[in-house]
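in:
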């Protein structure tokens, strides 16, 4: 097996164009091998966060007046460097977050592509001209940058999620204060290190690391932060929303999911099982778009469960850098404990255990568990609450209408998938699933970066992320009237 390199990074904050040590420091560990420290990183307090916000507010005056070409060139340079270094960045990501090396390298490449996409978008932020109701008057509607954007991200996509917030923020002319999750500071730092080389005016982009309670809270409450884009748990999202509402800041939240994958009796069963395996268990199930509820029509229920169980038994769980591993470790001990507690609750509530859910020993000490599958009832907590691990349940549906009703029977509304060969059922499901994204004969996880991403209900709040729609959040509309 390939051993992880012993290199330990020293990750500092990036504030006002300078690398700064923290008030205190912390360590990030490799969840595949807990003996390995991935990074020693700087941790900020309120006053250091305040410095970053003030630097951003000053830089905004400069950056917001730069030409679209200047912004496009900077983003293009950042995207090119990420793409050129995708293997190295992917290795760092796999070591720090624990997704398998191929998944991690693909995520690094995705981050590069996102910067390239928004380099183009910097040139396309436009407006419209409208005929006035009054003679001799001209009306135009333009988009302007919002100001300082506070960007708060989770650990599960430590390069792609920051990229899809930072790139549109900068493309639209905003200044940025970026706070990555404390589990993955090295990934945040690696991105900052590349952005720092793009010759942005000092203070345009700032990185501050540290706890959510201190750094995150300081950011969401700061009166100079005009826009807050947050991805993370529902509980923290609620805090961000309250803080933003209290001071009328623009806010965008992406939170959890309990995404259904419906399998109808007419589906290609092999394809449906593929979708379930990919959607529920890859990336260790740590995706907000994971297919954690598999809703299967009665005539194929037992055959589907039998085939899925067979496929799960063949999945290899292990060190993220080991070739051939399908599922890496859980990202940290707290998440592993949550997964185990959810499994214990499922058993107590009477969900029928089909496969897995066991702690695993591997040659290196890490947070390993086997993927888990239960047969559940719609009222079981395993069918209602997000677990954020490789844990899925199967619900039996009487027919297509019942499957749709079960799919919608959740507080969440991020993504919903269906496997069917019926165009009529597929169209009906797409129209009536109360979510932000639908998938037909595809896993619920796995998205394109040039189209909107987001959901409804408890999953998301505010404007969509990604693609051209990202400009809705990172710009504000101005209506200009003029008599010539
Ligand atoms: P989390 O809410 O614990 O943390 C997210 C970020 O918020 C971190 O940077 C954290 O430091 C920060 N934070 C914590 N407390 C804060 C506070 N009081 N003020 C400001 N910031 C604070 O979430 P997590 O454990 O890192 O990530 C897992 C969660 O993220 C899951 O629930 C998952 O569903 C969700 N997620 C959603 C999406 C999506 O797009 N919908 C994508 C990925 C992950």
């Amino acid at each position: 097996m390939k051993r992880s390199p012993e290199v330990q990074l020293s990750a500092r904050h990036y504030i006002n164009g300078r690398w700064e040590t923290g008030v205190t420091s912390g360590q990030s560990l490799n969840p595949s091998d807990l003996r390995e420290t991935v990074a020693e990183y700087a941790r900020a307090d309120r006053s250091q966060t305040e410095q970053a916000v003030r630097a951003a507010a000053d830089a905004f005056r400069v950056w917001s007046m730069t030409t679209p070409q200047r912004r496009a060139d900077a983003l293009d340079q950042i995207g090119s460097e990420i793409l050129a270094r995708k293997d190295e960045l992917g290795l760092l990501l796999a070591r720090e977050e624990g997704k398998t090396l191929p998944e991690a390298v693909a995520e690094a490449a995705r981050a590069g592509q996102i910067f390239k996409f928004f380099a183009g978008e910097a040139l396309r932020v436009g407006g419209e001209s409208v005929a006035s109701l009054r003679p001799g008057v001209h009306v135009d509607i333009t988009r302007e940058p919002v100001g300082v954007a506070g960007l708060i991200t989770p650990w599960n996509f430590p390069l792609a999620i920051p990229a899809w917030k930072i790139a549109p923020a900068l493309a639209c002319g905003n200044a940025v204060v970026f706070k990555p999750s404390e589990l993955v500071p090295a990934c945040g730092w690696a991105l900052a290190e590349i952005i720092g080389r793009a010759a942005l005016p000092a203070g345009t982009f700032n990185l501050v690391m540290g706890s959510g309670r201190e750094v995150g809270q300081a950011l969401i409450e700061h009166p100079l932060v005009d826009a807050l884009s947050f991805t993370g748990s529902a509980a923290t999202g609620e805090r961000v929303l309250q803080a933003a509402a209290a001071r009328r800041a623009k806010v965008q939240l992406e939170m959890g999911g309990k995404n259904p994958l419906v399998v109808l009796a007419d589906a290609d069963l092999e394809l449906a099982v593929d979708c379930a395996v990919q959607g529920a268990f890859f990336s260790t199930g740590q995706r907000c778009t994971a297919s954690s509820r598999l809703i299967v029509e009665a005539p194929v229920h037992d055959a589907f469960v039998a085939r899925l169980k067979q496929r799960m038994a063949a999945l290899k769980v292990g060190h993220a850098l080991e070739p051939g591993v399908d599922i890496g470790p859980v990202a940290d001990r707290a998440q592993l404990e949550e997964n185990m507690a959810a499994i214990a609750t499922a058993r107590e509530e009477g969900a029928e255990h089909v496969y897995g859910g066991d702690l695993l020993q591997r040659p290196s000490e890490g947070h390993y568990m086997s993927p888990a599958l239960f047969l559940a009832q719609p009222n079981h907590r395993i069918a209602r609450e997000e677990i954020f691990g490789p844990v899925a349940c199967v619900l039996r549906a009487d027919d297509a209408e019942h499957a749709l009703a079960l799919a919608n029977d959740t507080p969440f509304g991020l993504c919903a998938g269906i496997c069917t060969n019926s165009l009529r059922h597929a169209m009906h499901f797409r129209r009536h699933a109360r979510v932000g994204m639908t998938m037909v004969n595809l896993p619920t996880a796995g998205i394109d970066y040039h189209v909107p991403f987001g959901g409804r209900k408890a999953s998301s709040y505010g404007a969509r992320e990604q693609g051209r729609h990202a400009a809705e959040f990172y710009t504000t509309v101005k209506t200009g009237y003029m008599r010539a």
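note: The longest strand covers residues 33-43.
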